[in-house]
Specification:
2 domains; mainly alpha; single chain; 18 helices; 4-stranded mixed β-sheet
């Protein structure tokens, strides 16, 4: 759908990366992430000002800076969650602004923007629906409690729905112009995730469960869970003061936690989805007037946690103690000795290696979950390796039978029959197609500090 390589990401995210590539190359998405992060801080301040006034806004903004600045979410790598979460925060802010604004076209425009921002968040990461959920619940409860006339509620709902449909229509027009079926679009964005979740849960759960432990630990250590916990502990008082907002935030938390659980892999950036709800929770604790001293302690704790982790991440990346650059070193080493028309394949997927090598891959699945879900018998992979377009280079980043994917050793035997090992780069065996001759792999210092790349 997006070319030769298969991906399960929404078209909007791919468009953003294409625009970034034109504007500034592979590091430009980090600029997008930084700009959106700054906008999220502004949105957090304005939204929490509406909820609880200046004091709530100040403490909530400190919490927002602490949470968004925490390097454990990998915001500096511009992951989809980090690009979509600020749009959720902006959607929540605009929804609150629309609700308190006097009737008129400006109010309609705010609702329109809330819907567009909420849907664009889902365009970055398909499970980031909490912005739309917040707006819908906020509006419904406000009408139910007669804080908003039904007529005005219908008008704002229509405006928000219209705004949300703009990105959807853009994707549908793109699909029509490029000959992409809607069923294919749905399968790649949502159908695949369901299939992948089944693959994860049917396989060895030791790695996902270990990541669950790290996820829960980080949720506590970052202060994220503590902020939400204080909100839940002060729920009765907050509900008496801001019932519609409380109901909307509860709905956000439910949607975000469900998305995290169904994600299956439980990577650290999953927690980014909870940040807008945690920021709004902080404001609701202040607005409720109870548990404010503990809340201040937790916000200070979150800020301290972020600073400690920033120092730690900075040290490991600048001192060469991180292994996150190894994929780049492997790709660069192969690219240095490869011919321009060579191709490369990574067992079982690592797009960073392919990108760093500057070579193409004849196999469409660049991530391990894609391989496990869409080519579980490795039929396409074996056909690629033994076919006329077999890659000259194979990088083996893990055991050939990882996840029990090669129980009969057909892949291992084929690899040894068709290829010869020519060395290792940062612990990964590098294989060259038999009959081909290339210069020896260059020596690589895998402990080279991050700042020396490029």
């Amino acid at each position: 759908m997006f070319g030769f390589y298969w991906t399960d990401r929404p078209p909007v995210l791919l468009w953003m990366f294409q625009a970034a590539d034109v504007l500034g190359g592979p590091f430009a998405p980090r600029l997008w992430s930084a700009v959106l992060g700054a906008l999220a801080i502004v949105a957090a301040y304005r939204a929490t000002m509406i909820i609880g006034g200046p004091v709530a806004a100040r403490w909530s903004t400190v919490a927002a800076v602490a949470l968004l600045g925490n390097p454990a979410w990998y915001a500096w790598s511009a992951k989809a969650e980090n690009l979509g979460m600020p749009l959720v925060m902006i959607s929540c802010w605009l929804a609150l602004e629309a609700l308190q604004h006097r009737p008129g076209w400006a109010r309609v425009a705010l609702a329109l923007g809330a819907g567009s921002a909420g849907m664009l968040a889902m365009g970055m990461k398909q499970n980031l629906a909490s912005g739309l959920v917040f707006g819908a619940v906020l509006l419904a409860v406000s009408v139910m409690r007669r804080r908003l006339r039904a007529r005005d509620g219908v008008l704002l709902a229509g405006a928000a729905l219209t705004g949300a449909m703009v990105p959807v229509l853009a994707v549908l027009v793109w699909a029509e112009l490029n000959g992409v079926r809607i069923s294919t679009l749905w399968e790649m964005i949502y159908g695949f995730r369901s299939d992948a979740f089944q693959v994860i849960t049917r396989g060895d759960l030791s790695a996902p469960l270990e990541r669950v432990f790290h996820l829960v630990t980080l949720c506590l250590a970052s202060g994220l869970a503590l902020l939400v916990g204080l909100f839940l502990a002060s729920l009765r008082r907050s509900l008496a003061v801001r019932p519609a907002v409380v109901a909307a935030v509860l709905a956000m938390i439910l949607v975000d936690v469900t998305g995290i659980v169904l994600g299956g892999s439980y990577w650290m950036p999953y927690l980014v989805a909870l940040i807008p709800a945690a920021i709004l929770s902080t404001a609701l604790v202040v607005a409720g007037g109870v548990l404010v001293p503990p809340m201040r302690v937790v916000v200070a704790f979150a800020a301290g946690s972020s600073l400690v982790l920033l120092a730690y991440f900075g040290f490991i990346h600048l001192s060469g103690s991180s292994y996150s650059t190894w994929a780049t070193y492997r790709g660069e080493a192969v690219g240095e000795v490869a011919r321009p028309d060579d191709s490369i394949l990574v067992l079982y997927g690592a797009p960073e290696v392919v990108r760093a090598s500057g070579l193409d891959s004849p196999y469409p699945y660049l991530w391990s979950l894609h391989v496990r879900t869409l080519d579980p018998e490795l039929a396409l992979l074996r056909a690629t390796i033994q076919g006329p377009d077999a890659p000259e280079w194979i990088v083996q980043r893990a055991s050939v039978n990882r996840w029990g994917i090669d129980p009969d050793h057909r892949m291992r035997d084929l690899l040894q029959r068709r290829y010869v090992a020519v060395g290792k780069i940062c612990g990964a065996p590098i294989w060259l197609l038999k009959g081909e001759s290339r210069p020896a792999l260059p020596p690589v210092d895998c402990d080279r500090p991050f700042r020396q790349i490029g």
